[in-house]
Amino acid sequence: MKRLTAVLVSTFIALSAYAEDPFVGEYSGSFETNAHYFKVNPRVFAQISKPSKDTYKLILTPQLYVRATPYVCETIKDEGSDELKFGSDKAAWGFKISVDKFGKMKVSGKAGKDEVSAVLGKFERVSPTMGKAAPSGADVLIGGGNMDAWSLKAGGACDWKILDGGQVESVIHPAKDGKPRRDNTVFTKKAYESFRLHLEFRLPEDYKGMGVPRCNSGLYIGPVEIQILDTFHSDAQWGDCGALYKFVPPRANFCLPPERWQTYDVEFSAAQFDENGEIVKYPRITAWHNGMKMYDSVELTQGTDHSQLTAESYVYKPGGLKISLQDHGDKIRFRNMWIEPLKD
Description:
By secondary structure, this protein is mostly beta strands. Helix content is 3%, strand content 41%.
């Protein structure tokens, strides 16, 4: 809890002039009561997301970024109002919640026989590794004003859009014969063994549904995908943002709302082989999302593509793996991506 509080204090900034939905985001405050455990644990947090274009979701919880049952989890329809209202104070443990478009949330209700209330303010969380500079000896993959480190799977130069500030944006090829094309995934020209990797990405505000249709991409290390997806509204399933896709879910939901820059930091230990080229140790991966650890030293005994390759059917070979960024039909922005080779 101390670390979480430090993160919140260090990243609590004035409400920014984001162009997106004014209600979506994260909130923090304290209960004004001596009732029950609120006496020793008065802090309260909230997240408002949009699972779909016409629906708001609110969770009210004693702590963010954990797997735990919240005080409140409720969805309401977007009526285009300047104020959202959630909950009911009629139950023995019930809360009535209102939030205005200026980022002020009011909570009132009952905890057993006691009346409780709280006021929460909106804050913007910024990853502690945002803007992390490439160390000496690292390869800069994105941020040098070009995409020279990349090629397409079929060969040829990458045609992703180069933007100001070291940013790039994935380019979606037009549909062919009425079918969407997802042929613009890019691969590094070099293969890597053990390494540290840093990546910053931004997902657009595109409320076209839940799950896979929503701002989908992926950071691949050979056959292993770290999912990139707008799942701020979700609860860290094994197909959500940060997951080793359909293999290991993130420890909790560390996503930011859309239109915010987010970070991945990865430590990868390559497979090891004997003198005959036979694998004796599978790769391992540790990864952080927005500065918070998702999983630690996971042994990669299977790939994470749609065929769900196991270690027995995917043959690791000496010489390293290529890194790729997936084209899944959505425009995603990336910046400040570098990789630092490590010695085993």
